[in-house]
C-alpha cells in the first residue's frame, strides 16, 4: 500500500518490487483466484535461463451473470486462446496481461523496469523485455479465474484504457521495434498488434457513411448488390465467426448452439464500442494525458446474483457525452433498418441490425445499468463463527 498514486499501477508495481525479495515475482489483481498449484505449474519453466515471463490464461468467475459478462468472456477467450497461443507458438512477441503471470526479476530490471508513461505498463514492459531477447511462455491450459466487470461503464473504462494504452505503446516503441534486429515476421505482427485499435476510428467513419450507401443497392439492383456485400460479409463477418467459434471450442465453453447464438451479439457489441475506443485512440494520437482509471469490481456471487460490495463503497466513473453519441448512432440505424425493410434490401438488413443493436445496447446500458445494480441488495458479510 502506498500513500499516493504516483505512476498509478506501474508506480505501485515499482514500489512493491523495491521492497520485495526473491528471484521471481508473481502478479495478481485483487479479484483473481489462482489455482493452489500456480507456482508449481509456472516456476519450472524458468530452468531455461532465457525465459523471462510465464502468463496464465484468464478464467471468468461470473461469466454467466449477464449478457455483458458472457460477451466479455467470449472476447477475452479469443484474445488468449487464439491470439496469445498463435503468437507464442510462432515465435512472435506477445504480452503479459498485467495479472496472472510470473516474472523473472532480472528480466524486469534488464528491460528498464516498470514505466508509467503509458496506460498499459504491462504491454510496454513486455515489448521492451522481448526486444532485449527474453522469451515468454503462455500456458493456455493453466487458468486463473477472475471477476468480469458487470457494469457497462466499468467495461468501457477498461476498454478505453486498453485501447489508448496500446496506441501509446505503439508510438513509444514501434520505431525501436522496426529498427531492431528482430525477424521481419516479428516486426510485422508487432505492428499489427500495437496499432489494431486504429480500426475503431475507421469503424466510426464507416458507421457514418454506411446508411448513405443504401441507395447504391437500389440503383444497381440485387446482382451488383451481392457483389458489393458478399466480400464485406466474408471478410468482416465470417472470419470473426470462425475466430470466436474456434476459441470457444478450444476453451470448452457451452454447447455448439450456444456458441453460435452468441456470435452476432459479440460482433454487435464490438461495433458498439467503436465510439468509446475511437475516442481513446484519438486521445493517444493527440497526446492527451489522462489518469489510470481502475476497473471497479463488485464481488458478484454468480450463483445468487448478489452484489457483495455495499452501495456506499461502489466506484463510479465520471459522466460522459459518449452514451448520447452512441444512442444517436443507434437511432440513425433504427431508421436505416426500417428503410431496408421498406425497400426490400434484405442483403443489407443483417449488417444494419448489428450496428443498431450494438450502439443502442452500449448507449442504453451506459445510462441506465447503474439503476439496476443499485437496486440489488448488498450481500451482508458473514459473521465469524464463535468458539463453543
By helix and strand content, what is the structural category?
A: alpha+beta
What is the number of E strands?
Answer: 4
Radius of gyration, in Å, reads: 22 Å
What is the CA-CA span between the terminal residues? 37 Å
Give unreliable regions as ranges: 383-388
* Silhouette: globular
Level of helix content? 55-70%
Describe the 3D structure:
This protein has helices at 8-19, 38-42, 67-89, 105-111, 121-131, 152-179, 184-195, 198-209, 214-251, 256-272, 274-285, 322-342, 349-375, and strands at residues 24-27, 51-60, 101-104, 135-146. 58% of the residues lie in helices and 8% in strands. By secondary structure, it is α+β, with helices and mostly antiparallel strands.
Question: What's a quick, concise take on this entry?
Answer:
The protein is of the alpha+beta class and 388 residues long.
Write the layout of secondary structure elements.
Elements: H1 8-19, E1 24-27, H2 38-42, E2 51-60, H3 67-89, E3 101-104, H4 105-111, H5 121-131, E4 135-146, H6 152-179, H7 184-195, H8 198-209, H9 214-251, H10 256-272, H11 274-285, H12 322-342, H13 349-375
Parallel strand pairs: 2-4
Antiparallel strand pairs: 1-3, 2-3
Helix pairs in contact: 3-9, 3-10, 4-5, 5-6, 6-7, 6-11, 8-11, 9-10, 10-13, 12-13
Amino acid at each position: 500500500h502506498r500513500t499516493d498514486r504516483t505512476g498509478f499501477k506501474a508506480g505501485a508495481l515499482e514500489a512493491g518490487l523495491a521492497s520485495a525479495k526473491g528471484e521471481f515475482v508473481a502478479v495478481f489483481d485483487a479479484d483473481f483466484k489462482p489455482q493452489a498449484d500456480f507456482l508449481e505449474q509456472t516456476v519450472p519453466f524458468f530452468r531455461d535461463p532465457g525465459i523471462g515471463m510465464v502468463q496464465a490464461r484468464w478464467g471468468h468467475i461470473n461469466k454467466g451473470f449477464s449478457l455483458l459478462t458472457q460477451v466479455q468472456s467470449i472476447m477475452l477467450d479469443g484474445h488468449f486462446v487464439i491470439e496469445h497461443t498463435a503468437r507464442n507458438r510462432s515465435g512472435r512477441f506477445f504480452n503479459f496481461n498485467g495479472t496472472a503471470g510470473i516474472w523473472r526479476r532480472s528480466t524486469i530490471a534488464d528491460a528498464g523496469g516498470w514505466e508509467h508513461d503509458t496506460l498499459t505498463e504491462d504491454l510496454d514492459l513486455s515489448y521492451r523485455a522481448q526486444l532485449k531477447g527474453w522469451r515468454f511462455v503462455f500456458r493456455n491450459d493453466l487458468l486463473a479465474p477472475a471477476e468480469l466487470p458487470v457494469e457497462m461503464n466499468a467495461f468501457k473504462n477498461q476498454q478505453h484504457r486498453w485501447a489508448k494504452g496500446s496506441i501509446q505503446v505503439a508510438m513509444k516503441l514501434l520505431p525501436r521495434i522496426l529498427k531492431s534486429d528482430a525477424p521481419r515476421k516479428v516486426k510485422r505482427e508487432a505492428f499489427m498488434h500495437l496499432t489494431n485499435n486504429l480500426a475503431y476510428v475507421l469503424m466510426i467513419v464507416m458507421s457514418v457513411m454506411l446508411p448513405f450507401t443504401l441507395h447504391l443497392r437500389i440503383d444497381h439492383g440485387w446482382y451488383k448488390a451481392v457483389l458489393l456485400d458478399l466480400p464485406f460479409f466474408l471478410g468482416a463477418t465470417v472470419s470473426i465467426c470462425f475466430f470466436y467459434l474456434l476459441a470457444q471450442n478450444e476453451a470448452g465453453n457451452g454447447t455448439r448452439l450456444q456458441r453460435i447464438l452468441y456470435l452476432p451479439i459479440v460482433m454487435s457489441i464490438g461495433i458498439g464500442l467503436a465510439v468509446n475506443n475511437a475516442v481513446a485512440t484519438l486521445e493517444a494520437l493527440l497526446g492527451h494525458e489522462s489518469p489510470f482509471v481502475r476497473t471497479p469490481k463488485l464481488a458478484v456471487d454468480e450463483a445468487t446474483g448478489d452484489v457483495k460490495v455495499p452501495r456506499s463503497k461502489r466506484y463510479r466513473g465520471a459522466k460522459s457525452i459518449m452514451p448520447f453519441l452512441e444512442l444517436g448512432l443507434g437511432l440513425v440505424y433504427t431508421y436505416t433498418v426500417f428503410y431496408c425493410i421498406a425497400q426490400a434490401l434484405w442483403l443489407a438488413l443483417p449488417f444494419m441490425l448489428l450496428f443498431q443493436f450494438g450502439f443502442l445496447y452500449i448507449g442504453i446500458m451506459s445510462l441506465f445499468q447503474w439503476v439496476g445494480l443499485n437496486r440489488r441488495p448488498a450481500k451482508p458479510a458473514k459473521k465469524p463463527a464463535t468458539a463453543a
